[in-house]
Write a structure and sequence with these properties.
71% of the residues lie in helices and 0% in strands. It has 16 helices and no strands. The relative contact order is 0.15. With 384 residues, it is mainly alpha-helical. The protein has one domain (6-383). The longest helix has 59 residues, at 325-383. Helix 2 (38-50) crosses helix 12 (220-242) and helix 8 packs antiparallel against helix 11 (200-214).
C-alpha cells in the first residue's frame, strides 16, 4: 500500500482556504470600488495571489490521476464526488428554503441539482465531472509523449492558447491600459488566438502530470522569493490596467492569467518539496481527515458566507472591512469543515446501509439458487 503524502493534503487544505478568502472580496462589495491608492494596490496583489485557489485543485487532479486508465472501475469512482455534491446541495437548499427570504419552489430545487446551482459554488463540480470523464484520454496523450521535451511542448502550447492571450490581447497602443481594452473592444490589438481560453483546466492538469513525473526541485527560500516577486508583478500589472476605474473582471485577472499559472505552480512545488519526515503520525492522520472534507466544505461554505458577511457589511467603509478578513475566513472555514464532517458521516452511514442491503439481497439470491438446485436433485432422485 502506497504511503499517503501529507504534502497533497496540505495543498488541498490550502486551496480551500484560498477559495474562502477570495470569496471575501466578492461578498464585501470590493469589486464596486475604484482601483486607486496604496491599499487597493495591496488588495489587488492579494486577490491575484488568491486566484490560485481553483487551479491548485486542477493541478492536484493531474498529479493524482495521471496514471488512470479507461475502465469501468475508474468511472464508478465519480459516484463519491457526486454523492458529496448531492448532500452539499441538499444542505444549501434546506438552508435557503428555511432561513433566507428567497426560498426555491420544488421545480427550482430539483432543476438546481442538474444545473449545479443548488449549491451556489457547484460550478466546480460541473467542470470536474467533464475533466474526470476525459482523464483516461488525457492520460493516453500524456503517456504517448516520448520525452520531457515533448511534455513541455504540450504544456507550452496550452499556455500559449489558454493563458498568454489574457495579457497579450489586452495591449492598446492608442493609450495605456484602459477598461475598454480589457473588455476587448475594437481598440485592442489581438496578438494571439483568443478562442481557446476554456482549455485552461487541461493546462493545469498536464502541469500536475509533469510535476508528478519529474518532481522538480526548488529550494524553499528561492521558491518564496519567486512567489513574492510574481505576486507583486501580478498585482502591479492588474492595478495599472484598472487604475482609476471600478474593478472590471476579465481574463486578465482570472484563473488562466500567466501570473496565476506561475503562482499556482510555485505554491504546489513549495508544498511537495517540504520535508515531512518529522511530522507525527497523528498529525498526518488529522491532515488526511481534514483533506477528505475539503470538497464538501467548499460546496457548503456558501451557507456560512450568507451567515457571517451581513455583520461585516455593517462597516460602511469597504476597505476597512478587510481588517475582519482573517477572522471571517477562519470562522467560515471551521464552520464549513464541521458541516462537511456531518455530511461525511451521513454519507458513510448511507453507504454502510446500502452495502448491508446489497449483501442481504445477494444472500437471498444465493439461498434461492441453492434451494432450486436441491429441489432439482431431489426430483431426479425421485424419478430414479
Amino acid at each position: 500500500m502506497q504511503k499517503r503524502d501529507p504534502a497533497l493534503d496540505l495543498v488541498r487544505i490550502f486551496a480551500l482556504i484560498t477559495v474562502i478568502s477570495v470569496h471575501f472580496f466578492l461578498h464585501t462589495d470590493w469589486y464596486s470600488q475604484k482601483v486607486a491608492g496604496g491599499k487597493m494596490l495591496l488588495l489587488v496583489a492579494i486577490r491575484q495571489f488568491l486566484m490560485i485557489c481553483v487551479p491548485l485543485f486542477m493541478v492536484l487532479t493531474g498529479y493524482l490521476m495521471n496514471r488512470k486508465e479507461l475502465s469501468r472501475s475508474y468511472y464508478k469512482k465519480i459516484g463519491h464526488t457526486i454523492a458529496i455534491y448531492l448532500l452539499a446541495s441538499l444542505a444549501c437548499l434546506l438552508y435557503r428554503n428555511l432561513f433566507t427570504p428567497k426560498p426555491l419552489n420544488l421545480y427550482e430545487s430539483i432543476s438546481g441539482f442538474f444545473s449545479f446551482s443548488a449549491a451556489p459554488y457547484g460550478w466546480y463540480i460541473e467542470m470536474y465531472i467533464g475533466l474526470f470523464l476525459l482523464v483516461p484520454f488525457l492520460n493516453l496523450i500524456w503517456r504517448n509523449l516520448k520525452n520531457k521535451r515533448q511534455q513541455l511542448a504540450l504544456i507550452g502550447t496550452l499556455v500559449l492558447l489558454s493563458s498568454l492571450p489574457s495579457i497579450f490581447n489586452v495591449v492598446n497602443f492608442q493609450g495605456f491600459f484602459t477598461a475598454e481594452k480589457i473588455l476587448n473592444t475594437t481598440k485592442n490589438l489581438q496578438l494571439l488566438p483568443d478562442y481557446w481560453g476554456c482549455l485552461y483546466p487541461f493546462m493545469y492538469y498536464f502541469i500536475g502530470c509533469f510535476i508528478r513525473e519529474h518532481r522538480p526541485k526548488l529550494k524553499t527560500r528561492t521558491n518564496l522569493i519567486c512567489l513574492i516577486i510574481t505576486s507583486a508583478a501580478s498585482g502591479i500589472f492588474v492595478f495599472k490596467a484598472l487604475y482609476s476605474q471600478v474593478f472590471v473582471s476579465s481574463s486578465l485577472d482570472g484563473h488562466s492569467n500567466p501570473f496565476v499559472v506561475a503562482l499556482t505552480t510555485l505554491v504546489f512545488l513549495f508544498f511537495i518539496n517540504l520535508n515531512y519526515s518529522r511530522v507525527p503520525a497523528k498529525a498526518n492522520r488529522a491532515l488526511a481527515y481534514l483533506s477528505s472534507l475539503c470538497l464538501g466544505a467548499y460546496l457548503v461554505s456558501w451557507i456560512f458566507d450568507d451567515i457571517f458577511y451581513p455583520a461585516i457589511l455593517e462597516n460602511p467603509r469597504v476597505l476597512n472591512r478587510f481588517w475582519m478578513m482573517p477572522i471571517a475566513v477562519l470562522e467560515i472555514a471551521i464552520s464549513s469543515l464541521f458541516l462537511s464532517a456531518i455530511l461525511d458521516r451521513v454519507l458513510k452511514t448511507l453507504t454502510s446501509i446500502n452495502t448491508l442491503f446489497r449483501k442481504r439481497i445477494h444472500a437471498q439470491r444465493s439461498l434461492q439458487k441453492t434451494l432450486l438446485v436441491m429441489t432439482a436433485i431431489r426430483q431426479l432422485d425421485q424419478s430414479n
